């Protein structure tokens, strides 16, 4: 909670002291969170970190063991899903297989007894928004994964909820489609002005789309902030390691390199090869060519193995010959991020 | 997908058809109904050693080994004396007996008159070498060489005993005690819904017997020889009776339970069922109504292809031995076949009560007989309804 | 037989996948043709034979007499209608009882109790059919537990058509629960959550989502309950009072009267009804999703 940015807008989702246990397992272990109106908020974390449970607690599919959920200032902790002004896009889309696409999208309106004509128009509009005009008569089984995903989105959006909850909605799509959908989702969210709560384990996704990101670990939130803040100023080795990759230095090595005691993180792309005499010497252990970038693994004389990423903006050097060569590595002081020391400091990648 | 589901449908259809059809294959050799020629089957020439077991089809109460009532046992002694283990199958109706004997799995059967001739003409049973049955000589002459157990002077079985179908009633409910079959044919009976009847086409004869006395102008002389008019009258009476029937019984345990619980309070029964119900604590009694009754004269017969002929003969000899015949006659409630049995009964008046040697009494009892197209009462000017017609009428009566 | 011969066969099977397939399918196809369709064929053919009324021998001459009797006599129409009515009532009762039970098992109960519930549903199938039917005879008897439930001796349904429907529904219930349970098990929880999420209460979700998706399962179950009820003759003998169903007529003609041809002719009635039923189920599209 160190780097939370305060929004002046009203809060649509407020979680306080939220806990959820399943038998002996604690899935959510005391969460306090405020999500602002119209915000694109991501919950990022490894599987089992509790992010999906929090989403289900907001939706009302689970009741919390302790704590409260408030939507738009109203306590909804004990209310059933159908009494909450939120809609969900499920990981498996959960489209009703016996209903056509049009009927799927109309379902929420029909339940709320919206007149037939208005229902049809709004459903058509929602389908147009996700670029599926003319698909209304099809059955979900006759559509591709990406199309189904958009139907699920239209089915939720057509109800104009205060908050839209998305549970890894892009997880089942291939990379190209996923990147395309990321852009579309962001556009739709900005367009509709709805609060999005987005669960993902993909850090790229979280960083590219969100206004703010909450990083989950073992049922707790370890950091909340803008993508930039979370990436540039991780508060722990876990965050540094999970959001992007990072070189973590500790103990004697840190003392030698930074002339300070403590644990420090430096992103691979912030480290550069240099000829400066003050830079840290080391030996290239591995060279990995990855298209736009090349990754170097360097064993520092100070006693740590670090990863360096270099843009392939020029023609790459003769890479194979680099292995075993002596090099010097340098970085800017401001990119050395101090981390709290503890068991987390063991993390490095 | 379409092809798949069509295949699924085909398999389902086939499976369900088998479930629904529940039919089996059965082969039966036939002989013309007109000719009535008896298939030639050799009788056993000499008695050999027992085969170790014998498979019996019998009426309930005919083969008792003490499992129903500890004191009622004439099987254990037979088993220990002869070494023939008895496997008994109780049949509920004569039709069932015929069907069971046609399977060829049984050695001997206690056939009533409405089954015995069908078995003889069907070639399912063999003539009996009475010389091999030591107790045959003590059997009442009135039971030997009768139309239902002998053909052309050849004996096809050993007489077992005879008796009448009785009218059973709950003494605590049916007051006063009934004296006429009219009690079960009364459409306005106060016991409507609690009257029971025997579930077999042969029960049509009970209605015919009642009509014989109550409507003499129908001219019924024998309840098993019914021309069209007589048959229609009997069927109409039974259809009327159906409205008052609670259930039809064939399974004797069902009958005992129904009388005990009170689901049935009045209806046709056997003496052995009366005994069992009483033993079970049910307040029941039975009477022989004034019209007389249908009844049976049973015959032990041996299968044409018996797998255990020697044990079969040993059994037939045992069951008509004075002691065993007395025991079965008392338990089942019928007249014994063996003269010497009358001295062996626990109730010394048993033979008198059941009119063992009283042929004039049994003139009033109409033994179960298979109805034929050629009237069994000797009429030649009309055609009678045969058993197939009785069977189909029985279905229509039950509705 | 030595290993070399085995090996040769293995190789030849491997090289001729078509033979391999034929070998695999030979036994089941033979079974289907001979045992299933063959028995049915014999049934159909023997329906046109007659029986010698006296000796019980079968007369193998083509005759329509059996069908003339069945179509001509009113009693067979009455019994057919009654049997279809009983089968339909049993099916409806089973479906109405099975849906909530299966729903509880598949979607409400915990994983461990689900295990036990499935066993509990299956257990009655291990007990003898006759024992269960006779147990019901005692339950339904005059002054029995069911009577007491209705307020005294003679107040309950007693033996008869109602009792037959009740007992058959009890006997075939597992055959309805299991396919519905399997159907619900396959139904993702997220569909129910999505419906609730879109504002639907439980009842609405049941009507609009669960039941439509269960149609194939219920249809599969109904094929069992309907055909088993249509063929039954034992339960009705035990608790049916004087009630006759098609099964009784078939049984009476095979078991008691020994008139197999007429029994076969009667047996074509349920066969015909089931064919019509299956065609109707297929038309509804339920089989496509099985």
TrEMBL record, chain A:
One MF annotation (Gene Ontology) recorded for this entry: ATP binding
InterPro entries referenced in this protein's UniProt entry, alphabetically: AAA+_ATPase, ABC_SmlMolc_Importer, ABC_transporter-like_ATP-bd, ABC_transporter-like_CS, Mo/tungstate-bd_C_term_dom, P-loop_NTPase, Transp-assoc_OB_typ2
Boundaries of every ABC transporter domain copy: 13-243
Keyword terms of this UniProt record: ATP-binding, Nucleotide-binding, Transport
Annotated TM spans: none
Gene3D superfamilies named in the record: P-loop containing nucleotide triphosphate hydrolases
Name recorded for this polypeptide: ABC transporter ATP-binding protein
Source organism phylogeny: Bacteria, Bacillati, Actinomycetota, Actinomycetes, Micromonosporales
Automatic annotation (TrEMBL), chain B:
The keyword Signal belongs to this UniProt entry's keyword annotation: yes
The entry's keywords: Signal
Gene3D superfamilies: Periplasmic binding protein-like II
Membrane among keywords: no
SUPFAM superfamilies for this protein: Periplasmic binding protein-like II
Protein name: Spermidine/putrescine ABC transporter substrate-binding protein
């Amino acid at each position: 909670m160190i780097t939370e940015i305060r929004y002046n807008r009203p809060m649509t989702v407020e979680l306080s002291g939220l806990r959820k246990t399943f038998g002996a397992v604690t899935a959510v272990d005391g969460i306090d969170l405020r999500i602002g109106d119209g915000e694109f908020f991501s919950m990022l974390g490894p599987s089992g970190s509790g992010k999906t449970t929090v989403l289900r607690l907001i939706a009302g599919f689970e009741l919390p063991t302790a704590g409260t959920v408030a939507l738009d200032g109203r306590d909804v902790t004990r209310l059933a899903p159908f009494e909450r002004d939120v809609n969900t896009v499920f990981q498996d889309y959960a489209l009703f297989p016996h209903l056509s696409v049009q009927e799927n999208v109309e379902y929420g309106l029909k339940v709320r007894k919206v007149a037939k004509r208005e229902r049809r128009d709004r459903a058509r509009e929602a389908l147009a928004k996700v670029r599926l005009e003319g698909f209304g008569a099809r059955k979900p089984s006759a559509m591709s994964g990406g199309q189904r995903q958009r139907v699920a989105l239209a089915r939720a959006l057509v109800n104009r909820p205060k908050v839209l909850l998305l549970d890894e909605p892009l997880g089942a799509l291939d990379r190209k489609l996923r990147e395309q959908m990321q852009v579309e989702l962001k556009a739709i969210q900005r367009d509709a002005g709805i609060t999005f709560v987005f669960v993902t384990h993909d850090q790229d996704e979280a960083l590219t789309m969100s206004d703010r990101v909450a990083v989950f670990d073992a049922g707790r939130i370890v950091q909340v902030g803008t993508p930039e803040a979370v990436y540039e100023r991780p508060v722990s080795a876990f965050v540094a390691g999970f959001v992007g990759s990072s070189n973590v230095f500790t103990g004697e090595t840190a003392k030698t390199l930074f002339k300070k005691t403590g644990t420090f993180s430096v992103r691979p792309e912030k480290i550069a090869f240099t000829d400066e005499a003050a830079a840290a010497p080391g030996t290239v252990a591995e060279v990995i060519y990855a298209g736009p970038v090349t990754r170097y693994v360097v064993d520092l004389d100070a006693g740590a193995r670090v990863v360096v990423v270099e843009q392939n903006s020029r023609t790459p050097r003769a890479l194979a010959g680099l292995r075993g060569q002596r090099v010097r590595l340098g970085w800017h002081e401001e990119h050395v991020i101090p981390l709290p020391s503890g068991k987390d400091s063991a993390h490095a990648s | 997908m379409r092809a798949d589901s069509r295949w699924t449908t085909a398999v389902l259809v086939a499976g369900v058809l088998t479930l629904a059809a529940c039919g089996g294959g059965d082969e039966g050799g036939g002989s013309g109904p007109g000719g009535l020629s008896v298939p030639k089957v050799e009788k056993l020439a000499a008695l050999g050693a027992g085969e170790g077991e014998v498979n019996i089809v019998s009426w309930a109460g005919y083969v008792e080994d003490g499992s129903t009532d500890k004191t009622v046992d004439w099987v254990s002694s037979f088993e220990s004396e002869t070494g023939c283990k008895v496997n008994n199958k109780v049949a509920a109706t004569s039709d069932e007996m015929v069907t069971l004997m046609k399977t060829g799995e049984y050695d001997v059967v206690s056939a009533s008159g409405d089954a015995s001739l069908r078995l003889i003409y069907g070639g399912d049973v063999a003539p009996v070498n009475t010389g091999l049955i030591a107790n045959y000589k003590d059997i009442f002459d009135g039971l030997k060489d009768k139309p239902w157990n002998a053909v052309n002077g050849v004996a096809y079985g050993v007489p077992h005993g005879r008796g009448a179908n009785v009218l059973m009633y709950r003494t605590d409910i049916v007051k006063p005690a009934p004296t006429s079959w009219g009690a079960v044919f009364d459409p306005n009976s106060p016991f409507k819904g609690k009257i029971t009847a025997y579930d077999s086409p042969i029960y049509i004869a009970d209605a015919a017997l009642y009509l014989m006395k109550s409507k003499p102008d129908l001219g019924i002389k024998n309840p098993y020889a019914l021309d069209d008019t007589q048959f229609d009258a009997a069927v109409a009476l039974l259809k009327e009776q159906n409205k008052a029937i609670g259930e039809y019984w064939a399974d004797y345990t069902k009958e005992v339970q129904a009388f005990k619980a009170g689901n049935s309070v009045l209806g046709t029964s056997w003496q052995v069922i009366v005994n069992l119900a009483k033993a079970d604590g049910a307040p029941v009694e039975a009477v022989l109504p004034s019209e007389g009754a249908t009844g049976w004269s049973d015959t032990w017969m041996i299968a044409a292809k018996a797998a255990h002929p020697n044990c079969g003969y040993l059994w037939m000899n045992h069951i008509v031995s004075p002691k065993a015949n007395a025991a079965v006659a008392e338990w089942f409630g019928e007249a014994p076949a063996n003269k010497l049995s009358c001295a062996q009964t626990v109730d010394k008046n048993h033979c008198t009560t059941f009119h063992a040697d009283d042929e004039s009494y049994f003139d009033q009892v109409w033994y179960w007989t298979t109805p034929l197209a050629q009237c069994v009462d000797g009429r030649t000017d009309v055609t009678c309804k045969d058993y197939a017609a009785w069977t189909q009428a029985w279905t229509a009566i039950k509705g | 037989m030595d290993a070399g011969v085995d090996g040769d066969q293995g190789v030849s099977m491997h090289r001729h996948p078509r033979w391999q397939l034929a070998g695999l399918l030979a036994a089941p196809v033979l079974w289907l043709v001979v045992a299933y369709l063959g028995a049915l064929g014999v049934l159909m053919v023997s329906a046109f034979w007659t029986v010698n009324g006296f000796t019980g021998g079968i007369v193998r001459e083509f005759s329509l007499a059996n069908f003339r009797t069945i179509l001509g006599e009113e009693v067979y129409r009455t019994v057919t209608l009654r049997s279809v009515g009983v089968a339909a009532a049993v099916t409806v009762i089973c479906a109405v009882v099975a849906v909530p039970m299966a729903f509880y098992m598949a979607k409400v109960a915990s994983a461990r109790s689900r295990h036990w519930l499935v066993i509990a549903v299956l257990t009655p199938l291990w007990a003898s059919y006759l024992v269960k039917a006779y147990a019901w005879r005692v339950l339904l008897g005059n002054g029995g537990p069911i009577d007491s439930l209705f307020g005294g001796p003679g107040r309950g349904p007693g033996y008869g058509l109602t009792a037959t429907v009740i007992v058959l529904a009890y006997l075939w219930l597992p055959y309805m629960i299991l396919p519905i349970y399997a159907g619900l098990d396959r139904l993702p929880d997220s569909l129910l959550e999505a419906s609730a999420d879109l504002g639907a209460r439980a009842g609405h979700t049941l009507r609009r989502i669960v039941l439509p998706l269960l149609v194939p399962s219920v249809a599969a179950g109904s094929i069992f309950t309907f055909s088993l009820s249509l063929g039954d003759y034992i339960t009705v003998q035990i608790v049916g009072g004087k009630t006759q169903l098609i099964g009784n007529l078939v049984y009476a003609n095979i078991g008691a009267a020994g008139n197999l041809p007429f029994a076969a002719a009667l047996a074509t009635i349920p066969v015909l009804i089931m064919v019509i039923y299956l065609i109707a189920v297929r038309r509804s599209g339920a089989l496509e999703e099985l």
